[in-house]
Amino acid sequence: MTRRTDIHPDPARPEVGASFFSTWRVGTPLRQRQTVEAVAETWERRPWPAEGLLGYFLYAAKDGSGLLHYSQWADEQTYEAFVKTRRQERNDAIDTAVPGIERVGLGRYRHYRALTGDDHGARVPGCVVIVDVEFDGPDPARQRAWVDAVQEALAAEPNLHPGGISAHFHLATDGTRVLNYAEWETAQHHMDALAPPGDGVGSPTELWRRVQDWPGLRSSTVSRYEYALGLVPD
């Protein structure tokens, strides 16, 4: 069976062999709420689809326009079996309840590195910030090197913002992107961290300039979300 949970997922959970992130565009805060409830009802009326699906989580975009889907799988093969046999009829039920959902895209990732403070387990995230970094072509070594450079810059950061809880870096399996699933106490904490002069949450240090000017870095986008729904096997 399927049940709801208010507990945030652990992106570093060792059983997770494949992480999937996708976005849906729904248009308005009302449709956003309706879609979350449609997903919940659709899944709760059906058996949990696969033993290898460890959790399925939804996040509402702070601007009310869309949803982020984050699912944790034991491996990609289990996900592919779900797509072939169970995904479409669930999507059809959701589309019947809320017509006109635009499914923007889906990315396949593997968790690479977690950067957390000593007290991260004692703080509940009020905001999840997704930083999506794209490079100009596939290069797994570059993905890892860039994340390692971010870790180095954070370790030397003279003005760490107290609202940051964790950063979980995921590498796209096609070698072209890095996704940072970052937990913050509130969206305001993240906005405050971006307020000082500079590019991003870091101070204008040489280490951060190295991160921002990395060879082949094509783009970096930032989106803020609020936890909306968690579904796990009962």
Describe the 3D structure:
It is a single chain. The chain has 234 residues and is of the alpha+beta class. It folds into two domains: 105 residues, 2-Layer Sandwich (Alpha-Beta Plaits); 116 residues, 2-Layer Sandwich (Alpha-Beta Plaits), CATH 3.30.70.100. The chain has five helices and nine strands; from the N terminus they run E-E-H-E-E-H-E-E-H-E-E-H-H-E. The chain is globular and about 55 Å long. 31% of the residues are buried. The model has no long low-confidence stretch (mean pLDDT 94).
Percent range for β-strand residues: 35-45%
Helix content: 25-40%
Structural class: alpha+beta
Count of the separate structural domains: 2
User: In total, how many beta strands?
Assistant: 9
Stretches with pLDDT under 50, minimum 5 residues:
none
Q: Label the CATH architecture of the largest domain.
A: 2-Layer Sandwich
Count of runs of 4 or more consecutive helical residues: 5
Lateral arrangement of strands in the main beta sheet: 2-4-3-9-6-8-7-5
Mean pLDDT: 94
- Which CATH C-level class of the largest domain is it? Alpha Beta
Major pleated sheet: 8 strands, antiparallel, barrel
Radius of gyration: 18 Å
How would you describe this structure in keywords?
234 residues; Alpha-Beta Plaits; 2 domains
What would a concise description of this structure say?
With 234 residues, the protein is of the alpha+beta class. The chain is built from five helices and nine strands.
Question: Can you lay out the helices and strands and say which pair or pack?
Answer:
Elements (H helix, E strand, L loop, with lengths): L1 E3 L13 E8 L3 H16 L8 E9 L4 E8 L2 H22 L4 E15 L10 E9 L4 H16 L8 E9 L4 E8 L2 H8 L11 H7 L4 E17 L1
Antiparallel strand pairs: 1-9, 2-4, 2-5, 3-4, 3-9, 5-7, 6-8, 6-9, 7-8
